[in-house]
Amino acid sequence: MTDTLSSYLASIRKKDPDQPEFQQAAEEVLTSLWPFLQDNPAYLSQGILERLLEPERSITFRVPWTDDQGKVHVNRGYRVQMNSAIGPYKGGLRFHPSVNLGVLKFLAFEQVFKNALTTLPMGGGKGGSDFDPKGKSDSEVMRFCQSFMTELSRHIGANLDIPAGDIGVGAREVGYMYGQYKRMRNEFTSVLTGKGQTYGGSLMRPEATGFGCVYFAEQMLKSRDKSLDGLRVVISGAGNVAQYAALKVIQLGGLVLSLSDSGGTLHFADGLDEATWKKVVKLKNQERGRLEALDGQPGVQFIANSTPWHLSCDLALPCATQNELDEDDARKLIDNGCIAVAEGANMPCTLAAADLFLEHKTLYAPGKAANAGGVAVSGLEMSQNAMRLSWTEEEVDQKLHEIMESIHNACSHYGKDEEGFINYVKGANIAGFVKVADAMLAQGIV
Ligand code: NDP
């Protein structure tokens, strides 16, 4: 690689032409870091960028499992161990048909910066499979998880690599995988986070990503002397992150106008109330149903095949998946008066959408800052396991608050311009980068 930005980007495209999500994440980070790197050329030495862009290790493996009819299926399993400069690899597992090496590399790359921002000693990794838990029985999911963990267990450990949940991997899947790991290793260690509370899980871990995202949005609004009280909020997704983001917005006096899933958008014209929120949670977590089933409930309308971005709002929280909000969506949000966007999901906004928000001075927080609350409380789960104690809900919530505030401060420190506008993309990327790069420089060429 030579040392111009365009040559770095061209080299990434050439090296991994079939990994568009990884290219996108790398382009976002390198572009926003570039002026800082020019001013601090030590960070362009010792192959820091090249090493950050190359996983320390990528593991691909076969996952055979048998369905309820006795038919054998084979899925592909992965673990990308991206960077361990500041701590053991840490990052979730995703089970979704769209999973491939490029998607997991983008997620693992983002995770390195996010974990550094939490102030906790965690490196970055990500894994998963193209297995789709939707429509599978509990026994099928269990057999898949056991087969997946049988191979993954060789590559992880409480001081080596600690996975957690992500899309398609919730409490059920973490439980099955943890059970299999424990059985194979014959030891009770903190090898997965997001565990159930009866076997080492932390209070507030299920809530952490969604709550943390809203705490971050509160800080963003505060920088403009605003609060969530009375604000209209659109949220996409209806999974773990979206559910708890919605609950916290309601608790803080905001009006939740939408949730969504891959079938469409559920619109709450007068705002989502806690009783309807409970119905959504039961539908998605217990019955594993589709949002469409709630169409026609009082104040609830389902809009098929639609995302929520056309709805007029003050704050948008994309909490479903990558690239779910494009430039046209961003324009609609801006035109309809949206003043802030905080990403609960990883990379939900396309590069063009993100650029448009920044151009219009919309408050815009990338996932690596706004959704870091989940991995932060996973880090707290590891600490509690190591100390063999459990903190109360209030203690964990207090720590989550402090961590989200400190991430906001780090973003402001590196991202605020002369006019006081905070570029959270720049701030988060520089703050995360400096911590990891300093550790890499100290540890030599490894
Ligand atoms: P869940 O599996 O609990 O929920 C995912 C939600 O997103 C579902 O409502 C799902 O709808 C929807 N969705 C998934 N893929 C698509 C798609 N292609 N188009 C439209 N909707 C889609 O996952 P999480 O809530 O855990 O994760 C959501 C996002 O947050 C991801 O980007 C994840 O990486 C990120 N994240 C999660 C953390 C966590 O602690 N869980 C931590 C930090 C980030 P459907 O059911 O129809 O598929």
UniProtKB/TrEMBL annotation:
SUPFAM superfamilies (alphabetical): Aminoacid dehydrogenase-like, N-terminal domain, NAD(P)-binding Rossmann-fold domains
A Pfam family of this chain: ELFV_dehydrog_N
Chemical reaction(s) catalysed: L-glutamate + NADP(+) + H2O = 2-oxoglutarate + NH4(+) + NADPH + H(+)
CDD domains: NAD_bind_2_Glu_DH
Boundaries of every Glutamate/phenylalanine/leucine/valine/L-tryptophan dehydrogenase C-terminal domain copy: 202-444
Alphabetical UniProt keywords: Oxidoreductase
Keyword Oxidoreductase found: yes
UniProt cross-references to InterPro entries, sorted A to Z: Aminoacid_DH-like_N_sf, Glu/Leu/Phe/Val/Trp_DH, Glu/Leu/Phe/Val/Trp_DH_C, Glu/Leu/Phe/Val/Trp_DH_dimer, Glu/Leu/Phe/Val_DH_AS, Glu_DH, Glu_Leu_Phe_Val_DH, NAD(P)-bd_dom_sf
SMART domains the UniProt entry points to: ELFV_dehydrog
A GO term, aspect molecular function: glutamate dehydrogenase (NADP+) activity
Top-level taxon of the source organism: Bacteria
Family: Belongs to the Glu/Leu/Phe/Val dehydrogenases family.
Subunit structure: Homohexamer.
General function of this protein: Catalyzes the reversible oxidative deamination of glutamate to alpha-ketoglutarate and ammonia.
Protein name, as recorded: Glutamate dehydrogenase
Species this chain originates from: Pseudomonas neustonica
Taxonomic lineage from the root: Bacteria, Pseudomonadati, Pseudomonadota, Gammaproteobacteria, Pseudomonadales
